[in-house]
Amino acid sequence: MTSSDQSDGSKSANVVVKETSAVSNQLSPAVEYNKEVRFAVVMYGGVSLAIYINGIAQEMLRWVRSTAKSAKKDRDEALLPNSPSASSDLCLSGTERVYRKLSYILASGDTGKNKSWEKLLAQANTNLANNETIRTRFVVDILSGTSAGGINGIFLGKALANGQDMTGLESLWVKEGDVRTLINDKKSIEAPLILQDPPASLLNSQRMYFELLKAFDSMEQTGMSSPSFVDELDLFVTTTDLAGVTLPIRLSDGVVFERRHRNVLRFIYSQLDTTAKPDATPKTGAATPEAKPRNDFEGKFNPFLAFAARCTSAFPAAFEPMCLCDTDGILNGYLPYANKDDCRSDSTDWQRFYKDYLNPVGVDTVKFPKRPFADGGYLDNKPFTYATETIARRQADLLVTRKLIYIEPSPEHPEDEPDIAVKPDAIENVNAALLTLPRYETIREDLQRVREHNRLVDRVQTILKGIDEDKQTVKLETKSFTDKEWSALSLDQVAASKGISYVAYHRLDVQSVSDDLAKLVTRVAGFDEESDHFMIIRSLVGGWRAMAYDEDAKNNLPSLNQFLFDFNLAYPMRRINFLRTKISDRAKEKPEAQAKLLEIKKELNQAYKDLRSTARQLRSRQKPQTVGTPTAESTPSPAYEAIQNLRKALALKTRDRLPEDLRSKVKDPVVEYFLGVNSNGGTATGGSIKAQSDARAQELLKDTELFGLFEPIAVALKAEIGPAKQKADERCRKALDLKDKAEDGVEAKPPDNTTESHIYLGYYYQYYDEYDRIIFPIIYGTEIGENAKVDIIRISPEDATALINERETGCHKLAGTALGHFGAFLDPLWRRNDIMWGRLDGAERIIMALLPNDRELARRLVGEAQAAIVHEAIAKAGANEANDLICEAGMRTRSGNAEPDLITQFIENLTAHDVAEKIKPLIEDKTLRQHYLDTFPVRSKLDPESTVKTAARATTVIGKMLEGLSSSRNATTKPGLWIARLGRIFWAMVEVAVPRTFGELIFHHWLKLIYFLEALLIVGSTLLLADNAQKFAVTAFGITAAIHLAVVILSDLIQTRNRWVNLLKAIGAVVVVALIALGGLAVSALFVADSSWKKIGDARSLIVSSQTRLMYALGGFVFLVFLWALRRDLKFLRQSPVDRILSTTFSPIELVPPYDSNTDRVRKLQLSNRYFFPFSLSATPAKAWTRLFRKNWKTKEKASAFFKDNELRLIARLTDVDSIFPTLHNAIATTNTEYRDHVKALEAKNRQAEAENQARRQRELDLRKTIGSTLEKLNGQRPNQ
Q1: pLDDT at 707 over 80
Q2: Per-position DSSP letters for 1191-1243, written without gaps between them
Q3: Which residues are bridge partners to 258 per DSSP?
Q4: What is the CA 324 to chain-centroid distance, rounded?
């Protein structure tokens, strides 16, 4: 393609985009889904990289929202792509419009077919402008997260389930994700939180939970655009049970126990067609369980969701482990929940989330609300298993493309670290055993499970294709049966008709149905399906089946075919799944038949749902409702009473059969009778545990009373299963226009592509047993689910290369990767940077994953999406703030130096596909490049002042923690006490070391007085010959000087001048050289002569004899160095405040609208009639600027104003704000003018100084040239002979 072609394509796309913005059609696009793209998402842990993951989660929410149905009930329609008259929550924004176009492109079916990207993009733009019907839907239906990923997973799950947004979480990360806010001291406390003394963790765990809860609550105010973005959703959040729940393990000859520490909290959303009337169960008339959706993300569960988010991210030492009962104290003092009794740790509503802990097996255990849970990343930082297992169970109603997305914010590169053939030493070995290897997790096994799923899909499809090909060439005589005729046949008769190979399939089917029946009885009886009770009940069901049915239909007993007919719900569900697979294959081969195929599939799906609903109803654990109890979420199983009667009878019958001395000692006589070695004189058989259980079941079932208790269970189940199967069969046959049975004679041939869809599918429905006998043994014990292949995609900063290629440039886009992944917690700008890059990388990887064979088209859409993201990030920011945000990605270069070409290339890549032309007016390349160069020396490093302050506070908290731990464990508290004291001293020194602060002024004022008094005391004590007073004065002077020196060094570090650090390095180097010299003399003395020893001895004698003079000399030297180091500080004090400007670049400071954005932070001051009003500024003003502002602020009697970061904080009466605001603007404008004038003057001064330096260098150069020419002339002269 020529460049002109590309240019024309871009122009046409641009024109369409502009036309779209002017569209007048206000009718929302209709929704007629015929295809779904489903994402299962796995989110890793990563400490502050949670902020990057949040950006990706936001983009996934927008991706789903772009094709979701709106909240309107009268018709199926999506959100408007653009409408000036509609409210913003009913319209698409930014990248959502790009994803809508992507949906149109995928629905066209033209991707990967060498169709020009210009035509595809132009058609998508036209569809968007015309609000065309949406046929491809985007869905995230499985989420699995741990630690940092767990928090984002919960918020994303709630937003998807309730049609809400995640702005609350973004605000939480930016404002509260700051280590200075979270350090566990009094500065982190606000009502209803209580200060911990001593602290249990470095960061305030209570505050973290409280802020998470408020963020969840803030989501309840959103969600007007859609009731839900998904139909079903499974969320898995890992935590670590520190105590571990004790669980039994059955061995061949006994039971052992182990502790399970790995815990997963599962949250479910399941939505059904609530506009249709639910089918009623035949006997109770109650709605089936599926008629009532389940939503674990409702507002009433917010406290538990916050608990899950807090537990999964409880990073060791940073946050303390959490118990559910810890939430009670916070909720009691938090007004929205203070008077709600159903949201405490003992709430029965919350028990759905920890059912495994409600009925412990074998041993007593601590109740769940009092169990401590910690970070899920301890044992499972890459939680793939839950996602891959759920994928295998998913069933699709539409044609499905499935992707498994995993988010790895900081990829490892073991390939860059070559193996070294060296045996590790003891320290390396211990480090690997205790730290490195236990925390290293691989994902190979999880991804291998996905690949096995894909291979199973391929295998089944290949076999089915082979069966069809064989049937085309082999003629088979066949005999067809109705269901009634088939159920009356013996196994011999079926084998004679179907062939001997059918026998093995038949026996497998019988065993499978028996196991399903045993699971149903176990579950309804209230036992765990993984417990010993299941083995016992399976033996009883198998024994009952053998006595109630006969495979040869003899002894007046029904055949095993009748057993399958009575209880086999799995067969008709497998048959419908088989047809749904055929529909997917047919739709790919004949796109023109999709409408008819989807119409048939809709009926098949409803039949499947009805069968699944019946199955769930039959195995429901719900107890019958009693008078006065709340309405249950599901109805009990129709066989509930009969199964409970069997359970009671089993307990009585087995207890009577135990030896008398055991009857009163055994808690569970059923388990003891079937599996114990003490009952009935020991083990019943010499075989396995199962053989023993089977033998005792057969013996017990000889009791006619007990055997008779199975009859009402069977009657209750058959009364539900039979009608459900008949109804599903009738619905399917009606949709396929089928008779009751196929014709006898020669079996029909498989249909070809020319056959009509209902005939094509009808064949496979009629002859399904011929396929099931082959497929069922292959897939038995596996879960093939959607029968669609799963593509695996990774999202990481390295995989998204459209704007900055990390591997090639060596530049790290994310600030969160610094300081062991804690970096983003240190600076709000770093957090905004990581969120923006999360969105940028997420958008790129989503689009690239869905258009793998159309790279140019994908690149165009990626460019448009990324331009929209950056525009949203900087549109409302001031010039400096926008430049800071864009330049931040280039602050972590490989070389450690500024690389402005990175920023230039970033802007070029960003604007290349900005078809809406929104970025160019906001960014000027040269200005941005210069801003990057100006700010790199400061922004590429941590802010020294805040870092030192944070370190001082953290040291104090750690000391108190150690002190508290020592006290609680009866150990010495001195180490912790001294660390706490040092922390307080460190904090006090930091407070007075910060330049130009009130603390520094007070410190230096008192320092002068103390120096004066100490000098006076030294002189007086010397004149009066008072030795003790003189020693005290000298000691006090030394301590004062040491403190002063320490404060000066801290101040030097805070201002990043590092002069004192460099001086200390020089002194250290001198000391090292002296020690080396001394060592050299000592070595030479060993091998040369005694003269070296003599020199060393003489030097020592000289030092001893001159000790006093050396001390005075050393003191004088230190004092002179001290004065030399302060020379610039003394000069700095003589300058006027406005002369102390470090940078000559300046962008005017402005108040950033909207001014009501911080309304929730406005508060009335105590004991005053004034209010606190925060206003955002376009940038953080310099200290000199704030001093000029105070000079220009003329309404000090009415209001006071002060600055904190990029915020102006006004203290005034509410009634005076209107009159004060204009003067505030004027003061800011005047200050900008004066500050700009002074900057210009400073620039002129700098230019003058540079000109003078240049002139001086020129004069020196001219002088050197004159000297050189003079000497050169001497070369031609000869000396006198």
Answers
A1: yes
A2: HH---TTTEEEEEETTEEEEEE-GGGHHHHHHHHHHHHHHHHHHHHHHHHHHH
A3: 247
A4: 21
Distance CA(896)–CA(527), nearest Å, equals: 63
134-164 burial: b if 16+ Cβ within 10 Å, else e: bbbbbbbbbbbbbbbbbbbbbbbbbbbbbbb
* Confidence at 215, pLDDT banded by 50, 70, 90: very high
The encoded tokens of residue 333 equal 């003092």
**Scanning the structure block, which residue is given the tokens 């923006």?**
836
Give the tokens for residue 417: 């670290």
3-state secondary structure of 344: coil
Distance CA 298, CA 305 (A): 10
Dihedral angle sign, alpha carbons of residues 699, 701, 702, 703: positive
- Measure the CA–CA gap between 742 and 747, rounded to whole angstroms: 9
Quote the CA–CA distance of 350 and 300 in Å, as a whole number: 10
Would you state the structure tokens that stand for residue 640, as one six-digit string?
């509930």
Residues 10-34: tens digit of each pLDDT: 433 443 333 344 333 457 788 888 8
Q: What is the largest CA-CA distance in the chain?
A: 150
The two three-digit tokens of residue 656, written as one number: 């009577």
**Average pLDDT estimate for 1077-1103:** 57
Token representation of residue 293: 């959706």
Instruction: Give yes or no for a contact between 1244 and 1233, defined as CB atoms under 8 angstroms apart.
Output: no
What crossing angle do the helices spanning 501-524 and 491-498 adopt, rounded to 10°?
130
* d(C-alpha 856, C-alpha 360), whole Å: 58
Nearest to 225, CA basis, from 15, 43, 71, 417: 71
pLDDT tens string 1031-1042: 787 787 778 777
* CB-CB contact of 460 with 779 (8 Å): yes
Report d(CA 289, CA 636) in Å as an integer.
9
| Three-point CA angle 166, 171, 177, nearest 5° | 120
* Residue linked to tokens 């102390």: 1140
Write the DSSP symbol of residue 80. B
Strands (E), 460-587: 477-478
DSSP 8-state secondary structure symbol assigned to residue 377: G
What separation, in Å, do the N-terminal and C-terminal C-alpha atoms of the chain show? 85
> Greater confidence, 724 or 70?
724
What is the pLDDT at residue 754? Answer: 77
CA nearest to 510, candidates 575, 573, 577, 565: 565
